[in-house]
Here is the input.
Amino acid sequence: MGIEDFNRCIDEYSDGVYRFILKNIRDEEKARDIVQDSFEKMWQKIEGISSEKAKSYLFSTAYHTMIDAIRKEKAMVDFNYMKEELYSHSSQYCDLNEILHEAVSKLPAIQRSVIMLRDYEGYSYDEIAGITGLSETQVKVYIYRGRMFLKKYIGKMEVLI
Here is the structure.
């Protein structure tokens, strides 16, 4: 990959990577830092990256950089030990977008990441496995569990409308 390809990657993918990271960590400054770190890591390995794999490499690097940042802050919470009352939603509200964002923010980091990659960014299971370092089966399980939580959290669609 050359400098022109690198600059094209910045133009094409920086917004998508930023949105992906911001959706996961909900902190604009940290998200900008992670995106910048990801592009810096890509720049350092510019000779070893092919243009065809640039997007995948960038998202993969951003994902791993985000996970490292989360681990440093020890913000990971084991979802299995939380009480259902703390993460269930029972009140009726009409802003579906706000409810969905709140529900997604309550997912464990790994489930939130794979759901965001699948449903927001449109990656295939195989691509998500490559980005996250999980097996394709693990990706499917995390997406299934995340969607089941979202379904349970949000409830029936008729209640929301």
Remarks:
- Residues 77-161 form a domain with the Arc Repressor Mutant, subunit A fold (CATH 1.10.10.10).
- The chain has two domains: 1-76, 77-161.
- The chain is about 75% helix and 0% strand.
